[in-house]
Amino acid sequence: MGYDVAAEIQRLKKEKNAVILAHYYEDGDIQDVADYVGDSFYLAKMGQEVQQDVILLAGVVFMAESVKILNPTKTVLVPDLEASCSLVKGAPYDQYLAWRRQHPDGVAVTYINSSAEVKSISDVIITSSNAQQIVESIPKDRKILFGPDQHLGRWLSKKLGREFELWQGACEVHVLFNAKRLHELIVQHPDAIVIAHPECDDSVLAHAQVIGSTSRLLEEVQKNPAKKFIVATEAGIFHQMQKLRPDVELIQAPVLDSGCLCNNCPYMKMNTMDKIKHALETLKPQVGLSEDLRLKAKTSLDRMMDITSGKPVTWPSQFSI
Ligand code: 13P
Ligand code: SF4
């Protein structure tokens, strides 16, 4: 019989007392060896709760950093330290700091898709599954600085009828979905439900019946009796959708160049089963943060956790770094 990398990963998990948390955008074989699969908020929460000594985060580095910030005594592994995110890359610390300083009276609401450094100068972290609840908890008279994802920010700002100062970052995967081609596809499939992640451009979101985080989109496929869905998010999530609803047809929302694999996140897809096995064998690479940075970044993540669990929070009146 051939070498079974999945079985070897399961063995290593026991040997090292490790747990694997995976994002929905990973390949199906990675999701299948994971103990928990979910959206970025769920992964942060599970990362805080799990008891094992070693946490391997099969996702991108900012997700593993969030786990390390919240649960510092654990060894936190990532299969590939190069697995970044275009939103992280598009929000360098110095520029974000300068932007904050321009609006010292604003509350900085920052997407979890950001570096630990940017989190350290933010007031609260959000994900697409809790953004509305968190923004609604900020007093109405406070100005909101929202970054780094302009599309998520614009969608939320319209939804809540509240103006934001927007950082102009974007997800390089979701912005490729094309509204004109999506419209043509909807005409061909009038019976399909269109579901989209809020990182998509406005023009694409305008065609969607359901807009939400990866877990929200998965929930829609699970619960909606429709037999056909057009899905405007990263292709990895099809794995769980198809598992939950083998009876439905899932159609990828189109990008302009139909020949490319643009709906794959190049960072999520850096992770492989072999890299996961190697990380568990060697306990490397680990995410490392200085204690000073970790504590500074933790304040904004703690506010997210407190608000989502119904605890009262206070907001700093001025930014003063
Ligand atoms: P979710 O929080 O919806 O899982 O999104 C994470 C992400 O990176 C989307 O591109
Ligand atoms: Fe970042 Fe986009 Fe990849 Fe999500 S899909 S990790 S936002 S580049």
* Strand order across the largest sheet: 2-1-3-4
- List how many beta strands DSSP finds: 12
Strand content: 5-15%
CATH superfamily of the largest domain: NadA-like
Question: How many structural domains?
Answer: 3
Average predicted confidence as pLDDT: 97
Number of helices: 15
Alpha-carbon distance between the two ends: 60 Å
CATH architecture of the largest domain: 3-Layer(aba) Sandwich
**How are helices and strands ordered from N to C?**
HEHEHEHEHHEHEHEHEHEHEHEHEHH
So what's the CATH class of the largest domain? Alpha Beta
CATH fold type of the largest domain: Rossmann fold
C-alpha-based Rg, rounded? 20 Å
Portion in helices? 40-55%
| Helix/strand class | alpha/beta
Poorly predicted runs of 5 or more residues: none
- Shape by Cα distribution: globular
Tell me about the biggest sheet?
A: 4 strands, parallel
Q: What are the defining features of this structure?
A:
Rossmann fold; 15 helices; 3 domains; 321 residues; globular; binds iron/sulfur cluster; binds 1,3-dihydroxyacetonephosphate; 15% strand; four-stranded parallel beta sheet
Describe this structure in words.
The chain has 321 residues and is α/β, with parallel strands linked by helices. Helix content is 41%, strand content 15%. It has 15 helices and 12 strands. It has a 4-stranded parallel sheet, with helices on both faces. The protein has a 4-stranded parallel sheet with strand order 6-5-7-8. β5, α7 (116-120) and β6 (124-126) form a beta-alpha-beta unit. α1 (5-16) packs parallel to α14 and α4 crosses α15. The chain is globular, with a radius of gyration of 20 Å. The structure holds 1,3-dihydroxyacetonephosphate (13P) and iron/sulfur cluster (SF4). Iron/sulfur cluster (SF4) binds at residues 60, 85-87, 113, 171-174, 199, 234, 265, 267-268.
